[in-house]
Amino acid sequence: MQSNDASNPAAKVLPDAASNLNKKAQVAEMFNNIAGKYDFLNHFLSLGIDKGWRKKAINEIATINPKRILDVATGTGDLAIAAVKTNPKEIIGVDIADQMLEVGRKKIVEQNLSEIISLRNGDSEALPFESNSFDAVTCAYGVRNFENLEAGLKEMSRVLRDGGKVAILEFSHPKAFPIKQLYQFYFRFILPVMGKILSKHSSAYTYLPESVKAFPEGKRFCEILKECGFKNPKARPLTFGITTLYTASK
């Protein structure tokens, strides 16, 4: 298998190139700093379309009627909350950013979902769960931030039971004119400026387009999923290819 840097150029993209911290620590620090504004910015900067993307991901895992679901890089728990519609017995969300988890826990309490959903601090590259212990594993816009992409995906495969399903949402690049050009303009000039103003964070929304640009999307990411233990990976572009929904089984 190729080295992580070779298969995932996004590993070299850092929130703060001048920092002495590794990528994992920088990502945790970045998300902790913007946690209070994260949900608002997600919905505002995506014009609310992100909610529909999550629904499509959950519809994919619903086909196997999962009873135990793991949401990796859960952040503030939006995808974990959306997964309740599959009627599982338990949903666990893990993330390395404590402040994001705190925001998520408040939402879970407000929606009376504490008996179903729990959020924990956890490293995607060393998941604290037994092998073959989940029916479905989900991840929304988190794999791009892994310090070691293959390590994180192998862990997701390890904890997924045979016959289980994974659903991953990640940003991608539209290919058709004029969406491609509009998207590039928005991502390069509008999103970083609006993100900086609204989040009060100097680099979070500059890091976002740079990491998306470097991430191995589409067919290449499906190949990486296979290399990490998944079967029959599929890439489904959503909203003209702004986001891609990846699914696979074990």
Outline the structure in words.
By secondary structure, the chain is an alpha/beta fold. The chain contains nine helices and seven strands; from the N terminus they run αααβαβαββαβαααββ. It has a seven-stranded mixed β-sheet with strand order 3-2-1-4-5-7-6, with helices on both faces. The two termini are 19 Å apart.
Main attributes?
250 residues; alpha/beta; 7-stranded mixed β-sheet; 7 strands; 44% helix; 20% strand; globular
Can I get a quick summary?
With 250 residues, the chain is an alpha/beta fold.
Query: From N to C, what is the helix and strand string?
Result: HHHEHEHEEHEHHHEE
Percentage beta strand = 15-25%
Number of helices: 9
Report mean pLDDT, rounded to a whole number. Answer: 92
Radius of gyration: 17 Å
Low-confidence stretches: none
Major sheet strand order: 3-2-1-4-5-7-6
Which helices and strands appear, and what pairs or packs with what?
Layout (H helix, E strand, L loop, with lengths): L3 H4 L15 H23 L3 H14 L5 E5 L5 H5 L7 E6 L2 H13 L6 E5 L12 E7 L8 H11 E12 L7 H21 L4 H11 L4 H9 L3 E8 L4 E7 L1
Parallel strand pairs: 1-2, 1-4, 2-3, 4-5
Antiparallel strand pairs: 5-7, 6-7
Helix pairs in contact: 2-5, 2-7, 7-8
